[in-house]
Write a structure and sequence with these properties.
By secondary structure, the chain is of the alpha+beta class. It is built from nine helices and six strands. The protein has a four-stranded antiparallel sheet.
Length: about 230
């Protein structure tokens, strides 16, 4: 194993650097799976591939003659297993889902680790550039494109002055919103009789401030919450 230590170190350092670069972008944007998580994922993938590639250094000579490890099967196992870590950063909050982009970045970081483990450093650099471009440059492009902005809106209504659904739809329309879907909840609490949970959408960010100000002035609304969906 000593003869291969320098080569193995190069593989691992390349994986650590690649994972760290992608993790820095995630940490900068405030995501839970950031710098250290992506670095460890990339190095772990590289380590597992090195186990398969350098099988002759840890298999007994007799076993080498009868047993062969397929590195492609190791790669399949890595990509399957990393899905559990990616699923852990996907969170559902009411009607909104967050963490899909971070889960995808963890998945591609594992793939970069596999490339580093087998020594395809040119491919590692190319994939890093494309990944960072997708996470940062595409974010800027996405912000410039006309698009619908979605948000989860929850309203808790006063029993003495409930708002009919028709009036609520008209109120949202006046402020530039459409209701994508809505659910109704009967609440047996003091001063409360009904609750709306809605997914709403608009084309202008400023409409959220206007809507929040209007909702805060209505006596029939005891409490409201507006949460923008995102990655």
């Amino acid at each position: 194993m000593t003869d291969n230590m320098f080569e193995i170190l190069v593989h691992l350092l390349a994986a650590m650097a690649a994972g760290g670069i992608i993790g820095l972008e995630r940490s900068y944007n405030g995501h839970a799976a950031g710098f250290r998580t992506h670095t460890l994922v990339c190095m772990a993938s590289s380590v597992l591939m090195l186990v398969a590639i350098y099988q002759k250094d840890w298999f007994a000579q007799a076993l080498i003659e009868t047993v062969r490890i397929d590195p492609t099967r190791m790669a399949q196992g890595i990509m399957t297993g990393i899905g559990f870590l990616g699923a852990g950063v996907i969170m559902r909050e009411g009607l909104s889902i967050r963490g899909l982009t971070t889960a995808a970045s963890i998945w591609i970081t594992a793939a970069i680790g596999i490339l580093a483990g087998v020594g395809l450093y040119g491919a590692v650099i190319i994939v890093i550039v494309l990944t960072i471009g997708t996470l940062s440059v595409f974010r800027w492009i996405e912000s410039k494109l006309p698009a619908l902005i979605y948000a989860q809106c929850s309203l808790r209504l006063n029993c003495d002055a409930p708002i009919p659904e028709e009036d609520l739809r008209a109120l949202l329309a006046d402020h530039g919103f459409d209701i994508v879907n809505v659910s109704y909840t009967f609440v047996q609490e003091e001063g409360t009789c009904f609750k709306y949970d809605m997914m709403i959408r608009t084309r202008r960010q400023q409409n959220f401030e206007r809507l929040s100000h209007k909702l805060s002035t209505l006596d029939s609304i005891l409490e409201f919450r507006i949460s923008l969906t995102g990655d």
